């Protein structure tokens, strides 16, 4: 296994960007929370006759703002676009982050509006297929664009899996 050594400048940049993202998230959190409360974008607890105890135990969560993931992925995506876009290795993780974030936001919106399977959100199968499509695009990118065809298991070694990578 290859030891990765970072320069002092790379470490300073890493910690600077980490601190900046934390600061932006802390500033943006009250604004987002107020927006979510104001627009009633909170959890809806389904009342199901098959699981009345579950519904009763979770009733206190009703109205709690949801869609907080936007805070994480938008902050990360914006800082990545501003500071790391020149790196080729940035595109795939950025695509996976934004795509997954959009899927999660759509699911939350459907849940808030009471649209979808059983009156709240996307069906598990639909979410699974969408996330699998994002993963398939990522695997395709690794295999065809970057030429990767093996998986490394720590302590065991590398396994060449060829086209099974996708």
TrEMBL record:
Pfam families linked: MraY_sig1
InterPro entries according to UniProt: Glycosyl_transferase_4 (IPR000715), PNAcMuramoyl-5peptid_Trfase_CS (IPR018480)
Compartments it resides in: Membrane
Transmembrane is among the record's keywords: yes
Transmembrane segments: 14-37, 66-83, 89-107, 128-144
Membrane topology of the entry: Multi-pass membrane protein
Keywords recorded for this protein, A-Z: Membrane, Transferase, Transmembrane, Transmembrane helix
Signal peptide: none
GO biological process: cell wall macromolecule biosynthetic process; cell wall organization
Name of the protein: Phospho-N-acetylmuramoyl-pentapeptide-transferase
Origin species: Candidatus Berkelbacteria bacterium CG_4_8_14_3_um_filter_42_13
